[in-house]
Amino acid sequence: MSGAVTRPGDAVVVESPTFYAALQALERNGLHAIEVPTHPREGIDLAALAQVFERHRPKACWLMTNFQNPLGSLMPDAKKRDLVALATRYQVPLIEDDVYGELYFGARRPAPAKAYDGEGWVMHCASFSKCLAPGYRIGWTAPGRFTRAVTRLKLSSSLGASIPAQATLAAYLEKGGYDKHLRQLRHALSVQQNALLQSVARHFPDETRTTRPDGGYFLWVELPAHVRTLDLHRYALSHGVSIAPGPIFSARGGFDHCLRLNYGHAWDERSEHALATLGRLVRAFSAAA
Ligand SMILES: Cc1ncc(COP(=O)(O)O)c(C=O)c1O
Fold it and tell me: Which of 23, 50, 67, 243 is deepest in the core (most CB within 10 A)?
């Protein structure tokens, strides 16, 4: 998406922390990431974003308004409206990565920022990767005023998406099982989030802080300040437990004592055992410091 509105050497705004693959994609395309602080509940800091727009004139801004990876933040509607107004004022294309928007635990799907986009500066993107299966490699976009540029880029880069995969998905959507599947998935994720939160409370030190997102797959965890999660990650792996350490979510470093936990799997004895192991390691790291 960023290829339709940028050239190598351009600056692109991302959230901080952000999904590491976004940082990798920018790097691969020769783009310079400018990281803007992002609140664990309400999303990107709009005052800081306005300053970056004013000072650096970035060519795009790539963010997740709904259940951000890794924080799980959900931007309130009024803030989404302000975000779109800001991007429109500075004429900065807003690449809205909304792959988690359907995975809400509340009563209704949160609106995307695209809902407030009167002038076409929002390039809304989503896919079936998080709701059905990543293997289809099928997604879609509503890129507003950049539709022609995106279409041209898609044609020249991959001609088009796989027809058999699209036909399979279309048949599935027509049969009407998707809504039921989504309801079950949302329910399962919310139950699993609860189990994970309770397990963290049981096993981690009292100073631990976690987000409690209203949807999505991830918890963001802040450990006591001196616990280095890159080291914790290595130790945990040698005990058969995989975590995503905070520093991988920023190109600038930082988030040394933070980590992302995933509640995408059904909760069972193995999960409880993994969390107990992790909690024991965190306590040992904490005591050693
Ligand atoms: C925020 C975010 N965007 C995009 C993707 C990838 O989506 P896709 O598989 O449709 O390329 C992921 C997958 O982890 C993600 O977390």
Answer: 67
